[in-house]
Amino acid sequence: MEVTEIKHFNIRVYALILNDGGDVLLSDEYVLGRKMTKFPGGGMHFGEGPADCIRREAMEEFGQEIEIIEHFYTTDFFQRALFYSDHQLISIYYRAKFKEPARFRISDRPFDFPALENGSQSFRWSNIEKLTSEDLSFPIDKHVLGLLKKQ
């Protein structure tokens, strides 16, 4: 498919949540028959701004509020969406923190859920320095990891 056949934008918004030990929070998910490791977040709805989106996603995924610290990165290269070939993907990343200590389950291993069912999700901390681009599933997340490592 040619770039001229792209008909839609798919806008995704993610939280980069770091702890005091130099770790970043990762989301391990099973969606559409595929395992994926990514930063927490998801798709922006019509009528919603990016900051509203990541706050909503935090409530849906963590069950608790986050505080946005700053905008970190917005995709500055063309990326076709993985699941929809006629969509261009735009990803927005915010540095964020929890307003309260985490009240949800954080695992110490990847894909820590009972079965591979669509929508299964678990969270874990991963040391930024030890994390490699091969540990993440998506090209933009891999790029953002490189930017995080430079800080």
Number of strand segments: 7
Shape: globular
User: Over all CA atoms, what is the radius of gyration?
Assistant: 15 Å
Ends distance: 37 Å
Structural class: alpha+beta
Unreliably modeled segments? none
Mean pLDDT across all amino acids: 94
Explain the overall architecture:
The structure is a single chain. The chain has 151 residues and is α+β, with helices and mostly antiparallel strands. It has one domain: Nucleoside Triphosphate Pyrophosphohydrolase. 17% of the residues lie in helices and 37% in strands. The protein has 2 helices and 7 strands; from the N terminus they run ββββαβββα. Strands 4-1-6-5 form a 4-stranded mixed beta sheet, with helices on one face. The mean pLDDT is 94.
Key attributes of the depicted protein:
151 residues, alpha+beta, Nucleoside Triphosphate Pyrophosphohydrolase, four-stranded mixed beta sheet, three-stranded antiparallel beta sheet
